[in-house]
Amino acid sequence: MAPKRGVKAPVPAAKKKPEKVTNPLFEKRPKQFGIGGALPPKRDLTRFVKWPKTVQIQRKKRILKQRLKVPPALNQFTKTLDKNLGQSLTQSFFYLYFSDALLINLLDTYTLLLNYMFYCEVIVLCTISIKPQRSLNAFIMSPVATSLFKILLKYRPEDKAEKKERLLKRAQAETEGKTVEAKKPIVVKYGLNHVTYLIEQNKAQLVVIAHDVDPIELVVWLPALCRKMEIPYCIVKGKARLGSIVHKKTASVLCLTSVKNEDKLEFSRVLEAIKANFNDKFDEYRKKWGGGIMGSKSQAKTKAKERLLAKEAAQRMS
């Protein structure tokens, strides 16, 4: 039998909500934020701050460098010497020949033995040259950037006070009639023109370039010159950090021409790591463009558009 028309279904009984028990001692007093009322909560007003012109320029410059396409000659200055660079190299210090030996034939056992004897001698030399409080493991496994700056700090040039003291002692010795031995100290060389001359004369053993030189055109050609002259070079963060080594505010480039005998082992290890990560990768960096990174909003729009196109393509296929 068909149901009668016009008859409404019975309305289900509404569920009664349990009454919230309130304490009569505490009266609810909502805050009024009008004139003469309660103070509003503190808000983050960072985006409304009027920053100094220098800060604005720095931030805009950083954003532009991210957005625009950066040519390889400039992009190579973003590849700086990392703190943990060369860890694989330090491990290969012991295992290089042993890993190769696993691949060679049994007939080369004699060569392996000679290599083993050579590395035993190296280990003995290390233990002799290292200070007692520093373990061999700490010496071998120290990060390359840290080791580099430790070496540079050992060869800091004298400051004004040290120079004054040295000249005073020399003058006193001359008045007393003593002969003064004037040895040429081994120090870090700085100054763009001076370092360029040392590179051209093939006297430089290591060149350290700052990544934030302004204008960058001052040093943009230095990596190519170092590679041409087969001199190890590296790019590190901070012209101010390099400047502190030579008692200046900033320094665009530093150079080492020689080191003392006690530092030669550590210096050679640093040079190997730097060569592997800068000189040997020059051709790779020469072809790699940088920049082209859009903002978060632009990336979100692009992804949404890609998803929509993919959805339409899937519908056409189905």
From TrEMBL:
Ribosomal protein eL8/eL30/eS12/Gadd45 domain: residues covered: 176-265
Assigned keywords, A-Z: Ribonucleoprotein, Ribosomal protein
Gene Ontology terms: cellular component: cytosolic large ribosomal subunit
Signal peptide (UniProt feature, chain positions): none
Residue spans of biased composition, Low complexity class: 1-13
BP-aspect Gene Ontology terms: ribosome biogenesis
GO molecular function: RNA binding
Listed Gene3D superfamilies: 3.30.1330.30
PROSITE patterns: RIBOSOMAL_L7AE (PS01082)
Pfam families in the cross-refs: Ribosomal_L7Ae
Region Disordered, annotated ranges: 1-22
Functional summary from the UniProt entry: Component of the ribosome.
Protein name: 60S ribosomal protein L7a
